[in-house]
Design a protein that fits this description.
By secondary structure, the protein is α/β, with parallel strands linked by helices. Helices cover 39% and strands 14% of the residues. The protein has 17 helices and 13 strands. The mean pLDDT is 95.
C-alpha cells in the first residue's frame, strides 16, 4: 500500500435519497420515509490500492492468527467496517467455510461441476455468523464511545437468534430474542438458551415476531439486530468474495441461494459488486433465489416481472427458517436480481425433502433450506436453463445437524404429506450373527448390485 496511510470510510445511506446519510455508530435502520438504508464505502479511497494488492492482502491474512484478520470477514475489514477499533471486534474466526465439490451428486443431476458453499461450517452453524460479527462489533464500539445501548434484540426463525446470542455473550452484551413458538427446531431453540439470551417464544409466526422487535427497538432503546439493519449485510457479503477467492479470483456461472428474509441475496450481490468495481474480477455470475412454495412472495413477484410485489401469509414448511411472507429486504433483493440477470424458482415440500435426502445419499448432510436450493437447481437443469458444463455454486446456509427432526421423520416414514422415495430406517434385529449376516448381505446386494 501507499506510505500515506489510507483513510477508509463507510456510512449508512438511503437507497432512494443518496444525500441522506448517517454515521455507522448512529442508531439508524431506515431513512426518513421508512425505506431501508445501505452501507456505502468510499470506493475512491479503496481504488487507490490496486486489485492485485487487495488479492495479496486477503490471501496473506487468511487463516492467520493476527487479530482479527484471520476471520473470513475481518480479513476484509477495509471492505466491511473499517472504522471499528480492532479491540472492539467480536469474532469467532467465522468465514473461510469450505467449498464441497459435489462430484457424485452433480453427475447424478446432470452437472459436470457443482459445488456447495458450506456456510453451516461456522461457530453457530449458519451463515448468520458472518453478519452478526459485524453488527455486534459495532455495538461494542458504540458502547465504548459512550452510546447508551441496553441490549441487542432480534426476531428469528432460529439461526439469527443463535448467532446473536453467541456473539453478544462473547461481548458481555445483553441479548433478547423473539421466536415463533413451536416453529423452530429444538437444536435452534437451545442455542440462545445456552448462551444466556432472554428468549421469548411467542404465539405467532416470524412476521409477528418481527413486528414486536421493531416496536421494542423503537420504543425501548434496544438495538435491532435483524437484517433490516444494514450492518448485517456487510458481513454476509463476504460469501461472494470468498467464493471468488476460492476459485483463484474467478466467479462461477451460477450461484443458487435460498431466500427467506432476502438479506442474503442482496448481500451476495453487494460482495460481487465490490469485486467488479475494484477490478478483482471481470465477470458477474447469474443468481438464482430459491423459495419454498409455502413462503414464496418473491417468486410470485418474479412471475410478474417484479412489477407487483405483495406480502403473503407464509404457510408451514419444512424449511422453517425461510417461512417468511413479508421479507424486509425484498427491495434490495429485487434490485440485485435485476442487475445479475437473476431467476426466482420455488419448490414444493416433497421436492425440498427429496432433493436434500438425495444429496445426503452422496455424502452431504443438508439443512432443508439447502434442499430448497437444490430442488430449484434441479428444475433449472432439467429445463436446460443451466447447462451441464456450467460451473454452479449452491449456498448451503446452515448445518444439517440443526434440523435433524425432519430427517428422522422422513426415514421413519412419518413426515406428514410425504411418501419418501429413499427411506433408510435402522434395521432392528436380534444380536445373532447368522441373522445379521443374512440380512446384511441381502441389503448390500439390493443397494449395490454388481
Amino acid at each position: 500500500m501507499s506510505s500515506d496511510k489510507p483513510h477508509y470510510r463507510a456510512w449508512f445511506q438511503s437507497l432512494h435519497h443518496p444525500a441522506e446519510r448517517y454515521a455507522l455508530d448512529e442508531v439508524a435502520y431506515t431513512d426518513r420515509e421508512g425505506g431501508l438504508l445501505q452501507v456505502v464505502h468510499d470506493v475512491d479511497e479503496l481504488r487507490k490500492t490496486p486489485a492485485r494488492e487487495w488479492k495479496r492482502i486477503f490471501e496473506d491474512r487468511a487463516h492467520k492468527t493476527e487479530w482479527p484478520y484471520g476471520s473470513g470477514v475481518w480479513g476484509k475489514k477495509e471492505w466491511v467496517c473499517p472504522e471499528i477499533e480492532n479491540e472492539n471486534v467480536v469474532s469467532m474466526y467465522e468465514g473461510h467455510t469450505n467449498l464441497f465439490w459435489a462430484d457424485r451428486y452433480g453427475r447424478e443431476v446432470g452437472l459436470d461441476e457443482l459445488w456447495l458453499k458450506l456456510c453451516g461450517n461456522s461457530h453457530t452453524g449458519s451463515f448468520k455468523d458472518l453478519g452478526m460479527t459485524v453488527l455486534v462489533s459495532m455495538v461494542k464500539e458504540m458502547i465504548a464511545r459512550g452510546k447508551p445501548i441496553r441490549a441487542v434484540a432480534c426476531a428469528s426463525t432460529g439461526d439469527t437468534s443463535a448467532a446473536l446470542s453467541a456473539y453478544a455473550a462473547a461481548a458481555a452484551i445483553p441479548a433478547v430474542v423473539f421466536l415463533p413458538r413451536g416453529k423452530v427446531s429444538l437444536a435452534q431453540l437451545i442455542q440462545p438458551v445456552s448462551n444466556g439470551a432472554i428468549v421469548f417464544a411467542l404465539d405467532t409466526d416470524f412476521d409477528g415476531c418481527m413486528e414486536i422487535v421493531k416496536q421494542v427497538a423503537e420504543r425501548d432503546g434496544l438495538y435491532l439486530a435483524n437484517s433490516m439493519n444494514s450492518l448485517r449485510i456487510e458481513g454476509q457479503k463476504t460469501v461472494g468474495i470468498e467464493i471468488a477467492q476460492q476459485f483463484d479470483w474467478q466467479v462461477p456461472d451460477w450461484i443458487v441461494i435460498p431466500g427467506g428474509n432476502l438479506g442474503n441475496v442482496s448481500a451476495l450481490a453487494k460482495g460481487l459488486d465490490m469485486l467488479v468495481d475494484l477490478g478483482l474480477v471481470e465477470k458477474r455470475p447469474r443468481l438464482v433465489v430459491a423459495q419454498a412454495e409455502a413462503a414464496n412472495p418473491l417468486y410470485l413477484s418474479y412471475l410478474r416481472d417484479f412489477r407487483v410485489y405483495e406480502p403473503i401469509h407464509a404457510r408451514p414448511t419444512v424449511a422453517s427458517a425461510i417461512q417468511i411472507g413479508n421479507p424486509v429486504s425484498v427491495e434490495k433483493a429485487i434490485d440485485a436480481l435485476q442487475r445479475y440477470d437473476g431467476i426466482v424458482e420455488q419448490a414444493s415440500e416433497a421436492e425440498i425433502v427429496e432433493a436434500a435426502v438425495h444429496a445426503d445419499c452422496t455424502g452431504l448432510f443438508n439443512c432443508p433450506h439447502t434442499g430448497v436450493a437444490l430442488a430449484a437447481l434441479l428444475k433449472l437443469v432439467r429445463r436446460g436453463t443451466i447447462a451441464r458444463q456450467d460451473r454452479v455454486v449452491v449456498i448451503s446456509t446452515a448445518h444439517g445437524l440443526k434440523f435433524i427432526d425432519y430427517k428422522v421423520r422422513y426415514h421413519r416414514m412419518q413426515l406428514e404429506g410425504i411418501v419418501p422415495e429413499l427411506p433408510n430406517p435402522p434395521i432392528e434385529l436380534p444380536a445373532d450373527y447368522a441373522t445379521v449376516r443374512d440380512r446384511m448381505l441381502r441389503e448390500i446386494d439390493a443397494r449395490f448390485p454388481a
